[in-house]
Amino acid sequence: MNIRFPFVVSLLAIALSGCGQKDVAPAAATSTAPVKAAAVAAPAAAAPRVIEITANDTMKFSLATIEAKAGETIKIVLTNNGTLPKEAMGHNLVVLKPGTDGGAFCAAAMTAKATDYIPESLKGQVVAATALLGPRKSEEIILKDLKAGEYPYVCSFPAHFAVGMKGVLIVK
Ligand SMILES: [Cu+2]
Question: What's the pTM value of the predicted model, to 2 decimals?
Fold first, then answer.
């Protein structure tokens, strides 16, 4: 474990930097606008569609299905509207790769409290995840240039998946 951990971290770092480069690429090709417009053109790169999802003390996401188009970029904003403390009723939103078994992921996550219930060994199955949110906290994730597929999403706080805190992002 002592030996493997830094290795895993450096692999993650490589994977993340790879994503970063990919993210930068598609943005540039839009503007050959006249001089006057150019001044305001820079921030106008297509804003992602925003999808608001709430969670609360009843352990359900407000949306169990999200639909998107292939190539689309979406921003998912998770808000925990509950009142119970994070240690008892934290919520996250973890988007998993198509074909991932959300139940198995969450079973492994139960013992991963130290990493906010994202098991190190299964990070390769995660497309994106919010932090674990306490009451009245909110966090967003951005999913760029989505590929077609069905992406399960879960709350990996212990037992929340079993109660039904899950959904699917369908990209066509
Ligand atoms: Cu939850």
Answer: 0.74
